[in-house]
Design goal:
CATH architecture of the largest domain in chain A: 2-Layer Sandwich
Oligomer: homodimer
CATH topology of the largest domain in chain A: Dihydrodipicolinate Reductase, domain 2
Strand content of chain A: 25-35%
Largest sheet of chain A: 12 strands, mixed
CATH class of the largest domain in chain A: Alpha Beta
Helix content of chain A: 25-40%
């Protein structure tokens, strides 16, 4: 029986999960493929460290090159994360004619084009199901299921840590820092949570999704992102009052001539499906021409969900290898479309929630409204509340009709210079779903 | 360049959609496969009928055998629906060594085993992505993405017509018959709506899902199903009051030694993701061991969504054919598990919503509660409302704790014999989500 050889770079949680799944499902995988899948080399940083699974010590090495250069390794699974040295290793494996499976969204966001080009040159594939939405078979669905469709828009809740924090803030009325500390204790947030709560991780994933869905290169430095760390309980209370829930959305939209890519906290209608995606769960919502709206939901992280995704990629590659097929071109977007520029956030047309901290004196609301009007921003709703705490400025909350972001930013800059302005204005973009 | 020949049985909406998608995406499909896909024969009932797409008249025949026997046809796409003569045609195609793509859930529900056996014997594949959840790439996800996982439970909103009606009844407070008539006018419901609103169509789809997810044969006659046509506005009002939404759920659960399969209107917590699946949309929620909870959502019907699914199956088969691979065994569940009996509905353990129509006289509530207690059913909540309309019986609504269905049915039979009982009792099962 033919054997497909695997090499692992990294044996942390996900790596251990992969080893475990392959062992637990060996018979089923063998029956399905008509071949065996075998781990043949594992590179780790510390050879002696205790692992979540037992592995044959002879397989373990501390040099990544031992895995990459091993002629019995057909597929290299990269699970070390980060851009370097992961990039170097993956390019090395591709150059050696090995297929690659990776869960590394940062690597793909920054170097996806380079890796795809190297794959094309060496006639191998790179699969990355685990890079977005953990175990949700999402990348495959976008690539295969919609093979004859055209995706116009993709909207994701793709950072479980942020979604957990937002869910707790919504449901329990607690503050960001308190919930973050709890999430860190529970293992849902890293000691340095910047990448998660700052929106960077979601932006990496958005870049991966957009490159796949829109069939174009993405310059990651042009992806706009903003985190959830500035949100306060007051914003959640107003969101509730206006019928919204606050979610960290990653939004990608193909405008034909240009592409919109943005990650930021967003008010979404409470009845919308994405509003019900709670806790550490992820979801990706897709608008496409033939299929219309669809959504994929599940656990976006965790040892086993991520391992499931990696193993499903391995099986897919094994099928290709066994068929002796010239690559399934899985890495190549369905239809190459022309490269398009990424829009600046200033070009966005959206509705906005604006919460102003102003001194409670006559004429302030008129000043705010006047400046907004001067910037072509029309007001849909206003709430001005009596100041309860004399130490704190009064709150004026304005929900706008659709306006252009550059105008909104200019208006906020002007408002910030008013003598009555006593706090920076809070801005949350609103996502309008279709009727 | 190699060409994969297709034969169509049926050229209604979906068939026209398939022809259109293949034409519109010909270049992309060719780039992806390195081969062309070409429709070579189309069987229709009336050759002269006007079609939604233009097709070469030379391809059209009124004899299905012309398609099945055509040596230039590699893949037969069955879109005529119903069990006969679809079964005969599909078996004929398989016997001729042709792969089959079908959207026909009734055929699969009743004859799935026979078709799979014929495929295995003739070393061909049957693909059926379009049979459940329309264009949602759900069957593929269950088969491939979870290849190394084990599914314990699958819960679907899989009948768009029923979901549309329930959504309207919930949101607009209108009655079943009124909404059904409107749905028929809008083309969301058939002239004879029995299969949709009676639960039969959802039961067919549940049988298809269960066979795939649980790796076992399903005797369709043992699938319990109940429709939405007995629900009244009063039930929706109570559901709202208790924090529930009413959905027609198709529930399949693998208990290891036996399998639970049931379709019925169900009260689900309003905050649960499935409660937000509105209108004609479908969703399938899956509980699996490694991945945990996941959900797939999208349009469950319609010309283009269904056509997308059919074309994605065609592309998958084309890949196999081109690779010269011995079948991808897609039709075969991941891991064969022993055959298990399907549980009787009487074995169900659930919470129940019971609405009694009783005469408004002293001691009635005590009688009801007594009979329930005698049958080992404990009460979680009671609402008894003063009779507003003297023509109608008083309403007593009881929500039970978990109880056994056979006990509940026995209790309801006893209650039906009470002199005070003036209306049949309404029973709606409640689905409890995990915390």
């Amino acid at each position: 029986m033919r054997v497909i050889g695997l090499g692992l770079l990294g044996l942390g949680n996900v790596g251990a999960g992969v080893v475990k799944l392959l062992a637990d499902n060996a018979a089923a995988i063998e029956a399905r493929l008509g071949a065996r899948v075998e781990v043949r080399r594992i590179a780790v940083q510390q050879a002696e460290k205790r692992r979540l699974v037992e592995v044959d010590k002879k397989l373990v090495t501390t040099r990544a090159r031992d895995v990459i250069d091993d002629p019995s390794v057909d597929v290299v699974i990269e699970l070390i994360g980060g851009t370097e040295p992961a990039r170097e290793y993956v390019l090395g494996a591709i150059a050696k004619g090995k297929h690659v499976v990776t869960a590394n969204k940062a690597l793909l966001a920054y170097h996806g084009d380079e890796l795809l080009a190297a794959c094309a040159e060496n006639n191998v594939e790179i699969y990355y199901e685990a890079s977005v939405g953990g175990g949700i078979p999402l990348i495959r669905a976008l690539r295969e299921g919609l093979a004859s469709d055209r995706i116009d828009e993709v909207i994701g809740i793709v950072n479980g840590t942020s979604n957990f924090i937002l869910t707790q803030m919504t449901e329990q009325g607690r503050d960001f820092n308190e919930v973050l500390a709890e999430a860190q204790k529970a293992g849902y947030a890293e000691a340095d949570p910047t990448l998660d709560v700052g929106g960077g991780d979601a932006a990496h994933k958005l870049a991966v999704l957009a490159a796949l869905c829109f069939g174009t290169k993405i310059d990651f430095t042009k992806v706009f992102f903003e985190g959830i760390d500035k949100l306060t309980q007051r914003d959640f209370a107003y969101a509730e009052r206006f019928g919204y829930t606050i979610k960290l959305l990653a939004i990608g939209k193909d405008h034909g001539d240009s592409i919109e890519l943005r990650v930021h906290p967003t008010m979404v209608p409470k009845r919308w499906l994405l509003a019900s995606v709670g806790g550490v769960f992820n979801a990706v919502y897709v608008n496409s021409q033939a299929l219309g709206q669809s959504m994929y939901y599940g656990r976006g992280a965790g040892m086993m969900p991520t391992a499931v995704a990696v193993v499903s990629d391995v099986i897919e590659i094994a099928r290709t290898l066994l068929a002796g097929a010239p690559g399934t071109r899985a890495s190549v977007p369905r239809a190459k479309r022309p490269e398009r520029r990424i829009r600046d956030i200033g070009e966005l047309e959206s509705r906005y929630y604006l919460r102003f901290g102003v001194e409670d004196r006559p004429g302030v609301l008129a000043q705010l409204a006047g400046i907004l009007g001067d910037h072509d921003i029309s007001i849909a709703e206003v709430v001005q509340e009596g100041r309860r705490d004399p130490q704190r400025p009064a709150s004026v909350v304005i929900v706008t009709h659709r306006a252009r972001e550059s105008n909104v930013q200019a208006a906020l800059a002007a408002i910030g210079k008013l003598p009555a302005a006593s706090e920076p204005t809070q801005l949350v973009r609103i996502y309008e779903t279709r009727p």
